[in-house]
Structures are given as C-alpha cells and as structure tokens.
Amino acid sequence: MTTLMWFQAIGILLVFLVFVGLMMTRKLPTILALPLMAVLFALIAGVPFMSDDPETATIAKTILADGSMRLSGAIAGLVFGAWFGQVLNKVGITKSIIRKAAELAGDKPVLIAVLFFATGSIIFSAASGLGMVILVGTIVIPIMLTAGISQFVASIVVLSSVGVGVLFNVSNWAVYVDVLGLSVAAIADYTLVAALPLIFISLAMIVFYIKKDGKGRRAWAMPKATGGEGKKVPTIALISPIVPVVLVFAFKIDIVPAVVIGALVTILLTLPKRPIHVLSSALVEGIQDVAGAMALMIGIGILLNSVMAPQVSSLISPLIEAVLPTSPIMYILFFTLLSPLAIYRGPLNVWGLGSGIAALFVSAGMTPIAAMLALRVVSNVQAVSDPTNSHNVWVADFTKSDINEILKKTLPWMMVAVLVSMVIGAFMVF
C-alpha cells in the first residue's frame, strides 16, 4: 500500500471508531449512522459520486441506489415473519401457549421460569420483534413476579428466550443469504451449533440466579389470557409457531413460502370468524412492527456496498487480512474474546457493522460458512445482553431492573455459550 492509501485506511478506521462511539453513547441512531458511515468511507476512498462508465463503482448508483436494495430478500423475509407473528397473536395462539405453560408450572418458581423460557423461545422463533416481546412480557413477567421470582430473573427469562427464538426464526436467516450468498439449507445445518449451548447455558443461568436471589416480591395478579377473538384455541393449533421452522429444517423450503404455509396452517387450525380480515390486518400491523428493522436493513445494505466497492475494499482488506483467524484455535479465541463487540452496535453485530465485516472476512479468505457461524454465535451476546436492544430497554423498564446490571450479570454466561459453540463449530468449518 502507498502512503496515501495508508492515510485513507487510517481515515476510514477513525470514521469507524467515531461512529461506533456515537452509536454506543446513543448520540446518533444506528439507522442514520450506517448510511452516513457508508458515504464517508466512499468519499475517503475516492469513490466518485457519479460516472458515465457503468462499470465504475459510484456513490449514487452502487452505494445508495443498489445498496438500498441489497438486502431486499432479507427485508421480504422480515415482513413475512412479522405478518406470521401477528396472525398467531390475532387468533389467540400466543396467549394460549403462555396460559398452558402457566397451568403446567403451578406455583413452582424454577418450573415456571423454565417453562416460560421454553414457551418464549417457541413464540419468538415465529416472531421476535419488539411488539411480540411486549405482548409476551406483559403476560409472563407478572406471573413470574407473583410466583416470587425476582425482577432480574424475570428479565433474563424473557431476554434469553428472545436469544434462542431469534436463532430459529427463519425470517432472520435471509440476512446471511443476502450478505454471504449461502443457501437456507446450509444455514439450517449449523443452527443447532449456535442454539444448543445457548439453551443449556441460559437454563443454568436462570436456575443459578433463582437459587442465588431467593424470593422476589410478590406483585401483580396473573392477567387473563384469552384467544384473540375470545374463542378457545384448539390444542392442535399450538403447533403453529414451529410449522415454518419444521418446513425449513426438514423439507429445505425457502423462508417466505415456509412462513406463508405456516400462516395458512394457523388459519385452518383455528378457523377464525373473519380469516381474510385476520390475514390482511396482520400484514399491515406486522409491517408497522418491523418498520425500524427494515430501515436498518436498508442502511446495512448501503454499508455493505460501500465496504465492498473496489476503492474501499482495497484499503480495508489488508487490515482485515492482518487479523483474520486462520486456524481452529485462533478462530475460537478470536470470536470468543471479541464477542462483546457484538453489543452497542459494534463491529461483530450483524444488525450493525458486522455484515460488512463478515463480507470482508470472506473476501479476505474465510469461508462463508465460517463467517456465518461466527456471526450467529456472537449474536447470542447481542440478543441477550445488549443495552441498546429495544427489547432489553423495554424489559428492564417493565421489571424496574437496571439495564446495565442485566449486561454485567448475563455477559459472562453468554461468553461461555459462545466459547462452547465456537469449539464445536471450529471442528466443523476448518
């Protein structure tokens, strides 16, 4: 690299660090930070704004226009996933699953927490947006507090179930399809590597803190949980949330058709009075639920096209190659020790800078499977512990818990889950 190129690379690195700081301190929302950072990267690297040569990467066409459409497949998956979640909500399946779990658990705190962890994981595997977290949380958290579970433990039960559910939520997989060019089947094959350690470590964490914290305050009566239309939901209909997951895992069906089939199966099993209204209103409300995430994906796509532009990648690639893990041991240590960089919208956060970093890892020589697995594993830290998550903020506020205490107490456990997954994964991808 020439002296000028080194100055340009340092400039890009400084912009990166400044914007990470702005996002961490919440001075600039990620939704604006990502496209702004993309444009600044391009300007520093000398990418022209426009060009008469269609082969030349430009800010206007390559980064802004094409970048905004880069994750269109992922956005479609997100919309259909949110639609499915609203269908489950409207026909009463979500509340019925929670009520069944509460009835099974009785007044045993550990059993209640474990069952709600399992219940939340199933529900969030179908829909994991903030709206669904609020819906589930406002029902299960009062039940847990009434059973004597502490506010903190009630919080981590919900947050841990979000983390597990996200891994099985097939609508989220489209990000890896679009960013790394992987098939849905390939992503499915490695899901348990990320999920099983998280499930067992989360259960251990929940039981540990229940035993450690003792009884919490008994407050709030158990809310009434009814079907979406005041109608009893058939027991067989409770399998609806896992239908898309089964279709993707067992039959290798693509994400959107799997979700559509799941929604139709839900309607057939519950037979609501106005099925067309349920489907149409669920789509509108589902889009409202994920509007912020859709905008974030547009920003991620713009950033991806920026870092992959030849002018930018030629500056960043040498830096990435210098730190790229090339052996199983380095792969394990690199992503385990740096897994906290997935929080605060950091460089290993797939919903922030991580997608661009992953693309650069692949261009520098890492296999797409290895990059995908590493990002999915470290995302467990982000899903459960990250104080910048909207669902973490809501849960902490609803339970009157300290959001930074949740970070401090869950982060070590999540890093252990990352370590176990990385050890297993390293022998599969190297």
Quick synopsis:
It contains 21 helices and no strands. By secondary structure, it is mainly α.
Topology at a glance:
Blueprint: H1 3-24, H2 30-45, H3 59-68, H4 72-90, H5 93-105, H6 109-124, H7 130-146, H8 151-168, H9 174-180, H10 184-189, H11 191-213, H12 243-251, H13 255-270, H14 275-289, H15 291-308, H16 310-323, H17 328-337, H18 354-363, H19 368-385, H20 390-399, H21 403-429
Helix pairs in contact: 1-2, 2-15, 3-15, 4-9, 4-13, 4-14, 4-15, 5-6, 5-7, 6-7, 6-8, 6-11, 7-8, 7-20, 8-11, 8-19, 8-20, 9-18, 11-19, 11-21, 12-13, 15-18, 16-18, 17-21, 18-19, 19-21
Describe the structure.
The relative contact order is 0.15. The protein is mainly α and 430 residues long. It is globular. The longest helix is centred in the C-terminal third of the chain and has 27 residues, at 403-429. The model is unreliable at 218-230 (pLDDT under 50). It has 21 helices and no strands.
Report strand %: under 5%
Which structural class matches the secondary elements?
mainly alpha
What is the averaged pLDDT score? 86
Helix content: over 70%
N→C terminal distance: 30 Å
Backbone CA Rg: 22 Å
The rough form would be described as globular
Say how many strands there are.
Answer: 0
Work out the helix count.
21
What string, H for helix and E for strand, traces the elements in order? Answer: HHHHHHHHHHHHHHHHHHHHH
Taking the sheet with the most strands, its summary is: none
Which spans have pLDDT < 50 for at least 5 consecutive residues?
Answer: 218-230
